[in-house]
Task: inverse folding
């Protein structure tokens, strides 16, 4: 939805963000495939294994999930129940859209805020995730993903709100 | 109580489910005066569950298969082998859809990918239009019970989180789904034989056609053997089977068959990971809210109050069926699994229902939900795909609904059907 924004700075930065998300998604998923597969080959054929592969793979699952969720928000493909909206009039539909998007934005924002505090704490106390990787690096995706989702919900909400105003004026 | 009503209303108005569950977790921790940072710790537990790796890898493999020519090759092969039987083509459709759904995780891809092939073929063979619509729409969720379907894995993941005395292994779930899944395919096949257009000549069995079709699919045929054989032969774990499948499918469809240009890969990855992301997000926030539910012993209190009224296992199962059917009408399978299983599992175990059997009952009921009004996802996908009003699809799927309902009852009240292959 941010794409439709005529202000070119927004346009450009959101397009850059999309490109970053998409490429990260491709890189993380393909690395998962390669890592998980080579681990099986190494263990079964050469009898060797690296202990850092398992924790790394598990963290990649979190990352792929969070990145996927960001893209799902961008494409309005989050899972929802959505029974009532089918029977609402177009106007009520827009109003309920504004409501639910505000709500989703607020929840994402709260989670983003508290997880940012959490990650900052982890950074202060030098917690370790595995090997010598500091814990805040893999954790970082949580505040980032929820923060960007909060932003997206807010933008989508504003767009819906503007549609609503225009409809009321007509 | 008021906040629960508000959350339900927001959910019905279409607020993303993760935000509803997230809000209930936030509210829960807040009212217990627990620092909300704990939600991050809970979400981060996603990175501590090795089995989750299977979800993105199997889904990715399924999407790659769906983008290749594998579905049409599979239909040609099934047709060559089974096309000569009465109702042959319809049975081909059922089997092809079931196999395909098992791999793509019942995300509605089946109707889009296979429906386009099967629907015109069924029309040409003289089956009534309404039968064809019903068959294709129903088949879109057939195969949910076969490995390595995503809902089956997800049930295992959630059950493992519930810290049961009898741990639920995904290997066991894969085994448990085989006979109930076959029962559904067989019952629908019998209905199709009955509906076979009168006076219609079936095609002759043709050796050469079979050989040619098998040759064409020679790269895909080993896949089920690779997955199931690998897991039960003890060569690799479920998540490793997923990695092997992903690599195998990638190599075959992109480099050997060359049916998917490399340039398409980023789009396929993105499409598949949108589904995975939406599921993992809900799973993540529900890890926080489930914990809250368990801490406050909500499932146990529920169990006590149900127990006060119902003491027979069988009465409980009837109510469970009714509840799950209703649930399947409202919620999609993934959200239903994540929200309801943690609550229902301890209750069912209280009634001495095997957790693996419960999983099969749950998914079998949910399978019906895919094409029951008002929100059955496959009804809308089929309506869009075949340009038919949803009302017509309601009617078209009705006989199939009753057949599968009967299958669901058999699966529910005959536990051995699900549990016979389990070692314990």
Result:
């Amino acid at each position: 939805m941010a794409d439709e924004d005529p202000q070119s700075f927004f346009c450009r930065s959101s397009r850059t963000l999309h490109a970053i998300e998409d490429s990260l998604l491709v890189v993380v998923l393909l690395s998962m495939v390669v890592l998980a597969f080579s681990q099986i080959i190494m263990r079964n054929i050469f009898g060797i294994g690296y202990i850092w592969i398992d924790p790394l793979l598990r963290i990649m699952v979190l990352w792929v999930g969070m990145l996927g969720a960001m893209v799902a928000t961008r494409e309005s493909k989050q899972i929802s129940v959505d029974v009532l909206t089918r029977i609402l009039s177009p106007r009520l539909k827009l109003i309920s859209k504004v409501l639910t998007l505000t709500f989703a934005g607020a929840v994402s924002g709260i989670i983003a805020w508290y997880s940012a505090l959490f990650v900052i704490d982890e950074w202060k106390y030098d917690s370790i995730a595995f090997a010598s990787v500091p814990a805040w690096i893999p954790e970082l995706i949580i505040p980032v993903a929820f923060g960007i989702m909060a932003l997206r919900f807010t933008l989508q909400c504003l767009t819906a709100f503007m549609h609503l105003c225009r409809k009321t004026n007509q | 109580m008021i906040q629960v009503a508000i959350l339900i209303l927001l959910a019905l108005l279409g607020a993303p489910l993760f935000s509803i569950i997230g809000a209930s977790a936030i509210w829960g921790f807040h009212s217990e005066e627990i620092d909300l940072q704990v939600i991050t710790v809970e979400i981060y537990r996603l990175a501590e569950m090795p089995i989750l790796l299977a979800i993105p890898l199997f889904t990715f493999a399924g999407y790659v298969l769906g983008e290749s020519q594998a579905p049409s090759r599979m239909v040609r092969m099934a047709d060559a082998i089974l096309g000569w039987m009465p109702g042959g083509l319809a049975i081909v459709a059922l089997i092809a859809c079931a196999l395909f759904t098992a791999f793509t995780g019942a995300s509605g891809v089946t109707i889009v990918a296979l429906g386009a092939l099967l629907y015109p073929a069924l029309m040409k063979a003289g089956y009534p239009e309404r039968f064809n619509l019903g068959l294709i729409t129903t088949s879109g969720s057939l195969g949910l019970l076969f490995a390595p379907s995503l809902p089956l894995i997800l049930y295992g993941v959630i059950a493992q989180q519930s810290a049961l005395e009898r741990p639920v292994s995904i290997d066991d779930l894969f085994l448990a789904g085989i006979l109930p899944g076959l029962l559904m395919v067989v019952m629908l096949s019998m209905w199709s034989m009955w509906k076979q257009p009168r006076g219609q000549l079936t095609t002759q069995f043709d050796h050469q056609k079979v050989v040619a079709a098998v040759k064409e699919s020679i790269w895909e045929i080993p896949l089920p053997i690779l997955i199931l054989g690998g897991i039960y032969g003890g060569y690799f774990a479920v998540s490793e089977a997923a990695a092997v499948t992903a690599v195998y499918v990638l190599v075959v469809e992109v480099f050997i068959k060359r049916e998917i240009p490399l340039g398409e890969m980023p789009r396929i990855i993105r499409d598949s990971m949108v589904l995975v992301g939406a599921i993992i997000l809900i799973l993540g926030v529900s890890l926080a809210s489930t914990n809250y539910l368990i801490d406050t012993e909500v499932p146990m209190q529920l169990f006590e109050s149900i127990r006060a009224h119902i003491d027979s296992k069988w009465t409980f199962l009837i109510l469970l069926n009714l509840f799950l059917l209703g649930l399947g009408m409202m919620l999609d399978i993934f959200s239903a699994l994540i929200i309801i299983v943690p609550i229902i599992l301890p209750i069912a175990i209280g009634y001495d229902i095997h957790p693996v059997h419960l999983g099969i009952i749950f998914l079998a009921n949910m399978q019906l939900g895919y094409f029951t009004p008002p929100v059955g996802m496959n009804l809308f996908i089929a309506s869009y795909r075949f340009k038919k009003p949803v009302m017509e699809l309601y009617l078209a799927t009705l006989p199939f609904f009753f057949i599968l309902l009967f299958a669901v009852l058999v699966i529910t009240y005959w536990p051995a059907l699900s549990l016979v292959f389990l070692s314990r």
The mean pLDDT of chain B is 87. Chain B has one domain: 11-422. Chain B touches chain A through 66 residues (CB under 8 Å).
